[in-house]
Design brief:
Structural class: alpha+beta
Number of helices: 4
Radius of gyration: 17 Å
Strand order of the largest sheet: 1-4-2-3
Number of domains: 1
Order of helices and strands: EHEEHEHH
């Protein structure tokens, strides 16, 4: 079975204003088999610049009720090393959600490339804000 490419999104929340409003969109993408969540990690930098992280397994009804329904395929794939890597770019008193997901929608293309003995030379993901600045709908 072919797998799709994996993306890791780092989604920032200035002022630590994390509400869980992203969870329904993630659940919809999982339910439609568009993506498969490999792992998620919450990273928090407090007002003193102290960085901490919360793994999905550590969430409960109080700390992350909206995300508790999301099935994680590879718990621990994102870890403290990943939290440390983004912490320098994370402003004080803010948080980030790291989401690693397989693009299941691309598995057919991967399978076709493998069958054709083709190889992926490069892959470029253009951020939404860049696309919005260039493309008119």
């Amino acid at each position: 079975m072919a797998v799709g490419p994996v993306d890791v999104y780092v989604i920032g929340f200035p002022g630590n204003q994390f509400t869980g409003r992203i969870a329904p969109a993630i659940l919809d993408l999982v339910a439609s088999n568009t993506i498969r969540i490999l792992d998620m990690l919450f990273v928090i930098k407090d007002a003193n610049g102290v960085v901490s992280s919360i793994e999905m397994a550590d969430l409960n009804a109080e700390t992350g009720p909206a995300f508790m329904e999301i099935q994680i395929a590879q718990p621990g794939a994102l870890d403290q090393t990943d939290a440390e890597e983004i912490s320098d770019d994370l402003p004080i008193n803010s948080s980030a959600l790291l989401v690693a997901f397989e693009n299941r929608w691309a598995a057919k293309l991967v399978q076709a490339m493998q069958a054709a003995d083709a190889i992926e030379i490069d892959h470029v993901r253009i951020p939404v804000h860049v696309v919005e600045a260039v493309i008119t709908v």
